[in-house]
Amino acid sequence: MKRCKRFLSLLAVIVVIVTASSFAYTDTWSDYKTTTLYGYTYEYCCLTSIRYGNPKTMEASTLLKCERNAPAGYMGAQARLYTERGTLVTASDWVYNTSPLAGYYVDSDVTTTKGNYYSYGRVKLYNGNGYNDYYTYQSPIGVLNSIEPVTYKTNKYGDTYGTGVTVAITGEDPDFIEALGVDGTFGYVRSSDLESKVSSPRDALLSKSLEKANRMIPLYDEERNVIGQFEINTRYSEYTELSQ
User: What distance in Å separates the CA atoms of residue 78 and residue 136, rounded to the nearest whole number?
Assistant: First the structure.
């Protein structure tokens, strides 16, 4: 589904009634970050979307756009949805542009569990010899004005673990991120399992990331024991012209 019309308003919370699909959604946007790299200027942000269907759902999205069509493989993005305490609930896989594009959205899977959520986006931009990593700003959280920062704990192996909240302070993930497994089991996922192995535009094209939209990664306890699974579920939309 093309989502260009959603650029018409990027301030605070957007409520849109989509008559053709008979549902409404509320988008809560982060501010944009801007990066100029290897001759291209990019803007990126994240958002949470509440969709008022049956049932009502929440999802995270990352929007990455360029001032003009960026060459294939130059842009990568990932979407993550967290609870208000920073527990990872859903995450997409990494999606790269496989053709010249001005931008695209990446959506996580949805949750139907009541609560307050926020999103963080991850972005990778080609620098001529690999990729630079960036985080979007955190999206707003419903009625909450702020989140108490927490510090990472360390297990006996020296691994750091904790919630996604601390990313706002440290600018990097812990080794293990607090997460909910597919069956509701509380545990942690390895940050490295959420990372991309792509190192060049050629790799991005060969990865065929959209053909493996869903995959499972291990869910661990605090001492690296596997206790379940976490699903990576990705949806994708793109555009080739900026909306005015």
Answer: 10
Chain position carrying tokens 């010899």: 129
- Report in angstroms the alpha-carbon separations of 176 from 110, 218, 222: 22, 11, 8
- Which H or E run includes 126? strand 117-126
Cα 27 to Cα 52, 73, 138, 172, 232, distances in angstroms: 11, 28, 14, 25, 22
- Measured between alpha carbons, how far is 169 from 172 in angstroms, rounded to an integer? 8
The string of DSSP codes covering 11-27 is SSEEEEEETTTTEEEEE
**Smallest Cα–Cα separation from 72: which of 100, 53, 49, 45?**
100
The domain spans of the chain are: 4-239
- Residues 30-33: contacts with CB under 8 Å, at least 24 apart: 30/119, 30/121, 30/136, 30/137, 30/138, 30/139, 30/140, 31/137, 32/137, 33/134, 33/136, 33/137
Query: From CA 106, how far away is CA 129, in angstroms rounded?
Result: 24
d(CA 212, CA 27): 27
Half-sphere exposure of 224 (CA within 13 A, CB side): 8
Predicted confidence (pLDDT) per residue in 63-83, tens digit? 999 999 999 999 999 999 999
pTM of the model: 0.69
pLDDT digits (tens, 9 = 90+) for 109-148: 998 888 999 999 999 999 999 999 999 999 998 432 333 4
What span, in angstroms and rounded, lies between the C-alpha atoms of 141 and 70? 32
Residue in the structure block whose two tokens are 């060049």: 200
CA 98 to chain CA centroid, Å, is 18
